[in-house]
Amino acid sequence: MNETVKPRVFSTSELAGLYFPNSTKKSASNQLRRWIAKSDLLQQQLQSVGYKKGQKILTPKQVELIFAFLGMP
Fold first, then answer.
1. Which of 9, 53, 64, 68 has a 20 to 30 Å separation from 39 between CA atoms?
2. pTM over 0.85
3. What is the rounded CA–CA span in Å between residue 28 and residue 20?
């Protein structure tokens, strides 16, 4: 995608749509959650900045961590 995507507040479905632009919102969100679930370290890092399973809104710090672990969308 675009290297100019900056960490900011994203809904989970909005961020997932950047990673999976050809998927439905639900499918993209489910896939992003699966990617997060595959990485124990990413889950730990997200939890350390307040992430809770099922969270609908991601903080800029949480988005920054997702970008660091999964790469830019």
1. 9
2. yes
3. 6
Partners of 10 in the beta sheet? Answer: 58
Q: Which residue is it, tokens 């991601």?
A: 58
Q: Compute φ and ψ for 10, nearest 5 degrees.
A: -130, 145
- Give the model confidence (pLDDT) of 21-65 as tens digits: 999 999 999 999 999 999 999 999 999 999 998 899 999 999 999
Taking Cα atoms as reference points, which of 3, 29, 34, 2 lies closest to residue 17? 29
Q: Is 55 helix (H, G, I), strand (E, B) or coil?
A: coil
The answer to whether the Cα torsion of 65, 22, 11, 39 is positive or negative is: negative
